[in-house]
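Many introductory courses stop at the sequence. We go one step further.
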Amino acid sequence: MPAGKDRIIVIGGGIQGCATAYFLAKRGQDVTLLEKDHIGRHASGVNAGGVRRLGRDPVEIPLSLASMDIWQSLQGHIGDHADAFHPCFYLKVALDEDGQALGVDRINALLKAGFKHEIWLEDWEVKRRLPHLSCPTYGGILVEGDGWALPWRIVQGFASAAVKHGSRLVEGCRVVGIERGRDGWQLHTTKGLLEAAQVVNCAGAWAAGLSALAGDAAFPLSPYAPMLAVTDSRPGILPAVIGVLGQTLSLKQLHSGQFVIGGGIRARANLETSRGEIDIPALAASMDLATTLFTAITSARIIRCWSGIEGYMPDGLPVIGRGSQPGLVHGFGFSAHGFQLGPAVGEALADLVMGQQPRISLAPFSPSRFETT
C-alpha cells in the first residue's frame, strides 16, 4: 500500500471504529478504516448482542440514552442491516431478597438522579410478561424497548455505510508502529506506510498497546474473553432478554428458537495469537442459572460455545476522549458492555476529531483519569 495523505485514520473494525468512520465519512471527511483481521472479528462481532440501557453505571446512562436514539432510527443509517436489531424488553429478575433489595435501591437511586427508564415490576407482573418462567421471583427491573441484535450484521452495516459515504476500508492491516512527525502521524502497517493528520484508536483489547506506540498514556487495559453458548432450536418461550439481579446472566431466544446464554462470564485471552479460551466450568454456571429460570432449557442441546476478545478497564468504564498527543483520539475499554453504546460513541468521536462539542459530556470517560503524576 503506497503512502497517502489520509486526513483521518480510524484503527479498529469493531462497532465503535465502524460507527466513527461512518459518521466522519457522512460528514464529508477523508477517512480510512483499518482492521488487523476482518470487520467484527473480535468482541463487537461475536458478543451476545444485547442492546440495553438497563443496569448501566449511572455515568453511562446519558450516553446509552443518546445511543438508543440512533438505534431507534437505525434504518436511516445502515439500511437493511438494521433488520438485525430486535427491540422487545429487557428484564432483570430478583431470585431472592438480596436481589430485590439491590433492584429497589437502584430504582430509587435512578429516580433521585432523574432517570425513569428503568421501572420496578412485582412478581405477578413478571409472571404476566414471562408466563413460561419456571421459578418464583421477588420482582424485577424492566426497560421497555431494549432488545438484542445480531452483532456481526450491525457492525457490517456501519462498515458498509462508511464505505458508501466514501470511507476507505482496509482489512488484514495491522498497525506495527506509530510516530508523531512535524506534519502529523506516520503509521507503519503490514500493508505499508500511511500518514494522517488525526488518528482514532478504537482497537479494543489492543488499544493500550497502540497508545504506548504513539507515546501516549500507559492505560491499565486487561484482555479477557467473554464467553457464550447457543443451544439447538426449541419452541418459543422467551420474548425478551432476561438477566438476574446480583448474578451474571444474559439469556435470550432467537427467532430460530435457539437460546443464547452469556452475560460476561470470561476466560483468558491471548493478544499475540488473537485467540480467546473457553472455560466450560465457568460457562456452565450461567447455563445452570438459565435452566433455573426456564426448565425447558434443560433438555436443549448446547451446539456451540465461543468467546471474543475484549479490553477491560479497572473501573469498568470506557476511555473516550482526546489523548495527550495532538491529533490522537481514543475510544476503547468498554469492558464487555459497549455494543449498545457503539453508535453514540462513533458520533462523539467524530465530533472530537472535527473539533465539535459532543452532545453528551464525555468527562466521566476522560483518558486523563489514568494519568500518573
